[in-house]
Amino acid sequence: MDLYTIPVKNVRGVGTQKTEELLLIGIQTVAQLIEYYPFRYEDYQLRDLTEVKNGEKITVQGTIYSEPLLQMYGKTKSRLTCKVVVENFFVTAVWFNRHFLKDKLKLGQEIILTGKWDQGRRHLSVSESEFPGQGTTRIGTLQPVYSVAGPITQQWMRKTMMQAFSQFGEMIEENLPQDLKLKHNFLPRKQAIYHIHHPVDITEGKHARARVVYEEFFFFQLKIQAYRALSRSKAEGSAFAVDLPAVRAFVRALPFVLTDSQKHVIGEIMHDLQQPYSMNRLLQGDVGSGKTIVAAVALFAVIRTGAQGALMVPTEILAEQHYRSLTRLFEPYGISVGLLTGSLTERIRRGIISSLQTGELQILIGTHALIQEDVYFHNLGLVVIDEQHRFGVQQRSILRRKGLHPDVLTMTATPIPRTLAITAYGDMDVSSLRELPKGRKPIRTYSVNHNMLERVLGFISREVLAGRQAYLICPLIEESEKVDVQNAMDLHAQLTQHFPDFRVGLLHGRLPTVEKDHVMREFSENKIQVLVSTTVIEVGVDVPNATIMVVYDAQRFGLSQLHQLRGRVGRGEHASYCILIAEAKSEVSKERLKVMTETNDGFEIARRDLELRGPGDYFGTKQSGLPEFRLADLVSDFEVLELARDDVAELLMRTDFWTGLEYLAFRQFLQREQIFGEGLID
Ligand SMILES: Nc1ncnc2c1ncn2[C@@H]1O[C@H](COP(=O)(O)OP(=O)(O)OP(=O)(O)O)[C@@H](O)[C@H]1O
């Protein structure tokens, strides 16, 4: 029996009802209860009134000085007040809807009050009160605050946690290797967990927390590093016999010289392709850094060995664009490229699928239509996934399974600090494109009010007359595509009137694919000069002659999204501009727009975005594949993560880790996590 199997109902005070309520927050076993850590503490240290600030939540002790005064509003609403002397001050204590306390407040009685302090009126809005000497007191302590709601109250959770400790505390076992525990001077596990629920003071709480954070990272790292070590030793996947001279010739024939970054990354990929294990590499590069061509070189190398390649992208517009450019690129080499999207006729779709199955079709580009069940490859060797944050982890693995351990290259234009990437995508190698192709001019970014609109339109007019093109991204009013489409249509009508001499195009998600494709094609051929669009063009669209990006209501967009939109311009040799039309009211919005005008560096923007928003929001949904921890925070505990990573790497190098009795528990852990295949462990 261990804590991981003992049902939580064995804790005294947890009945059938509570067992069900706990289940709703994911607690079934005693271990899950004990590892349900508080997310903050309520500070009940007594405060000196001369030092507290207006609006602070404080705890004070005083003497009741006046008879309580009760005002009732209707049947249940009430306001109860009484004067209390705290040190030498008079304070008015105010309780809302606690009329039953009236009879308990006696003149001259000592009372402990916790609440929000209103400095001007010397009022304390009481949230909790107690009389000293009556049972346990919270005074002077830090009380844990758990993420609970509804029928489970903080008080109940605190009590139950203590109960769980008194019944089962002794069963909490050490789980870190002894030498690492000593190396970092960590508390024993039992003590650390107890102190997280009940720290005597902040310092002690931090010390206890450090150990548990480390422990979470340690096991996470153990899992991914062991998995990698094992999959590499099993050498699943194929070692491609890459024809390097042919690849070099392909690169030389490109219409431009690759940047050093691109060459370096291509080198890394070529190395991976030749290894007997499957590549799993993340390519992160700022917008316009030239990721597509890197993918194209990788596809070329693999196709040349006789295998097939797939490129999966998030939108149809992008699929079409890649289809056009890769067809152009690969045609001279006799490489066949196909396009599979959701809007093909059944007959065409069948044709593509069958030529894919015979191996006649060598590269398939598409949206998630690529992962439908009836799509089979003859010999899928490389999967390239563009804009990976849009695909769920599961979709990625379905595509991966369509080949026998194909190599996978994932590209993302949402650069995140490299170190964080290594963790977030723990099982991947990470390559970064840090430089833009030569000759790019920095995009000048301006943030303006709506009343500057006339001038903005005048500016567009001048640029278009000089031969350039412009995007106008429509106001994002709410999370409703319908409203966005309406906005785009209204703006399109206005601008068509305003620019009688130019062609103004319209693009939004609700247009049929043929039409979208047609509009994009006309824009890329400069038959359309001004393109009004919703954010469907956010990622990937590549029209180097476009030099102006205007974003309406820019304050409604996230930083990374604005950076993506801005990245649609500045892709050629002409000077480019990004104009953010915004009415920023809050400080954070202002700060965000300022960041945009200050820097063009996507890595820097990602970092600032992370600061302004916090990682949970930044990575969006759970789809990001970002690991979740109970206590640890990927950003603020990053240094601990690095420690754990290095420790684990060292541990896995030791032969006794794989054989010694001392490490049996860790091998068992890996087995439980299904890291080992059948029969690989003694
Ligand atoms: N080394 C280079 N020199 C000059 N131009 C290049 C170079 N590499 C790529 N390009 C061109 O730069 C433009 C941007 O490249 P690409 O579309 O691959 O960028 P990306 O990294 O995919 O950007 P995004 O994330 O915005 O889609 C393309 O027009 C491409 O042909």
Provide a descriptive summary of the structure in words.
Residues 452-611 form the Helicase C-terminal domain. It is an enzyme of class 5 (isomerase). InterPro entries: ATP-dep_DNA_helicase_RecG (IPR004609), DEAD/DEAH_box_helicase_dom (IPR011545), Helicase_ATP-bd (IPR014001), Helicase_C-like (IPR001650), NA-bd_OB-fold (IPR012340), P-loop_NTPase (IPR027417), RecG/Mfd (IPR047112), RecG_dom3_C (IPR045562). Residues 272-433 form the Helicase ATP-binding domain. β4 (77-86) and β5 form a beta hairpin. This protein has 4 domains: 45-140, Beta Barrel (OB fold (Dihydrolipoamide Acetyltransferase, E2P)); 173-234 and 637-682, no CATH class; 244-433, Rossmann fold, CATH 3.40.50.300; 444-599, Rossmann fold (3-Layer(aba) Sandwich). It is an alpha/beta fold and 682 residues long. Helix content is 39%, strand content 18%. The two termini are 22 Å apart. Residues 616-625 and 678-682 have low confidence and may be disordered. The protein binds adenosine-5'-triphosphate.
Question: Tags for this entry?
Answer:
single chain, 682 residues, alpha/beta, OB fold (Dihydrolipoamide Acetyltransferase, E2P), Rossmann fold, seven-stranded parallel sheet, six-stranded parallel sheet, 23 helices, binds adenosine-5'-triphosphate
